[in-house]
Amino acid sequence: MKLLIDPKGKKYLMTKGETEMHTQHGVVKIAKKDGVNKSHMGTEYLQTEANFIDMLLNCKRGPQVVLPKDAAAIVVHTSLPVGASVVDAGSGSGWLAAFLAHYVGPTGKVTTYEKRKDFAKIAKENFKFLELENVKLKNVDVTKGIKEKKLDLITLDLLTPTKVPNISKSLKAGGYVVVYVPHLEQAETFVAFAKKQGLYFERAIEVIEREWDLKWDSLKERMGAIGHTAYLVFCRKV
Ligand SMILES: C[S@@+](CC[C@H](N)C(=O)[O-])C[C@H]1O[C@@H](n2cnc3c(N)ncnc32)[C@H](O)[C@@H]1O
Q1: What HEC string does 75-137 produce?
Q2: Nearest to 228 by CA among 178, 181, 179
Q3: Is the pLDDT of residue 8 over 80?
Q4: What is the pLDDT of the chain when averaged over all its residues?
């Protein structure tokens, strides 16, 4: 898929089969060669190949999604290997599951649990759009239990992570459970719950991302920095 970037950095993703894009500054016809491409009004766009994150950020949103800054912190702090086996719940819009599926690659596998049919449909549409074949969605309540075993990672982004039974049994030695919770009290409650299952609390973090607009005469922070989204709690089977 092709991506067009306007002079202010705004991105337009061309979906498959599209040959032109209607932008703020006129119509841009896709050129055979990537590079500078002008709209019919003369505005210069940069045309290039879209990458996974360009496509992910264009996916549908149902419930609140996990953004790449937090998803990236999960793979870094769990040292998630390519080829890993992962369970994620709830799927919601499928953004975190999709990021993890892309990251573990075709030799890895992500199973994601979602209890609501409407959200399951959104997540599945997003997986299809991203052409991910290593992610399986189970339209099942995860509090009934995780069937998968020997997992490298379990991610829980739902209201009641402490209702998910036998997390430890599903993890391989050294595997992680990571919960994504908006409030510190929920993080503390989860840690107490995880400790009772014999899991080791490794760390809790919050990821703040500030983007800078680099103009060489004056450095100023760009509006739209991503502040607090949630706390990430990492517990490990040791
Ligand atoms: C905030 S959303 C998850 C967003 C997702 N991480 C993403 O990045 O798109 C929380 C989801 O958990 C689902 N959920 C809540 N309790 C659940 C349960 N017991 N089993 C499965 N899904 C559940 C909700 O229906 C909702 O779709």
Answers
A1: HHHCCCCCCCEEEEECCCCCHHHHHHHHHHCCCCEEEEECCCHHHHHHHHHHHHHCCCCCEEE
A2: 181
A3: yes
A4: 94
Query: Which of 91, 127, 180, 181 best tests ligand 1's pocket when mutated (most atoms within 8 Å of CB)?
Result: 91
Structure tokens at 17: 């089969």
Q: pLDDT tens digit string along 151-189?
A: 999 999 999 999 999 999 999 999 999 999 999 999 999
Q: Quick: pLDDT tens for 217-230.
A: 655 555 566 778 99
**Residue 93 CA: which ligand 1 atom is closest?**
9
Q: Does the domain at residues 2-50 carry the CATH identifier 3.40.50.300?
A: no
Structure-token match 């075709």, residue found: 106
The pLDDT, as a whole number, for residue 53 is 97
Cis peptide before 108 (omega within 30 of 0): no
Ligand 1 pocket, CB under 6 A = 63-66, 89-90, 92-96, 113-116, 119, 141-143, 157-159
| CA 65 to ligand 1 center in whole angstroms | 10
SS3 of residue 151 by DSSP: strand
What's the CATH class of domain 56-236? alpha beta
Question: What secondary structure letter does DSSP report for 216?
Answer: T
CA of 123 relative to ligand 1 center, distance in Å? 10
Question: Which atom of ligand 1 is closest in space to residue 180's alpha carbon?
Answer: 6
Residue-range domain boundaries for the chain: 2-50, 56-236
CB crowding 112-141: b at 16 or more within 10 Å, else e: bbbbbeebbebbbebbebbebebbebbebb
